[in-house]
TrEMBL record:
Pfam hit, one: DUF1905
InterPro entries found in the cross-reference section: AF2212/PG0164-like_sf, DUF1905
Protein name: DUF1905 domain-containing protein
Gene3D superfamilies for the chain: AF2212/PG0164-like (2.40.30.100)
């Protein structure tokens, strides 16, 4: 496990990705009119990642997920939580979840 974390950190450095791992607790919010949910990222994405949208890897209560921090008519950036992940962790909108999040590399389409 430690070797895997060290190699991920080195990869982020080589690819000029943000090396920080963000860890925080967040309330799961409901997407109005849909069976969707998200958490709010409590930092400024442009300051932290140098752009307005960031591809990230995350863990919700230890369950892995890959997505993007985006603004969807919300005051700040959000990260969606799929229904299957909510089922695995046994949580729904209104519940608190522990989040670990870091920037991930994405392949550029040619």
């Amino acid at each position: 496990m430690i070797r895997e974390i060290e190699s991920q950190t080195k990869l982020r450095e080589v690819m000029k990705l943000n090396p920080k791992i963000y860890e925080f607790d967040a309330v799961i919010r409901k997407v109005e009119g849909l069976d969707g949910a998200y958490i709010e990222f409590p930092w400024d994405v442009r300051t932290e990642f140098g752009r307005g949208r960031a591809a990230v890897s995350a863990e919700f209560d230890g369950i892995p997920y890959q997505g993007s921090l985006v603004r969807m008519g919300t005051p700040g950036h959000i990260l969606g939580i799929r229904k299957d992940i909510r089922a695995q962790i046994g949580k729904q909108p209104g519940d608190q979840v522990h989040v670990r999040l870091w920037e991930r590399a994405i392949e550029k389409k040619r």
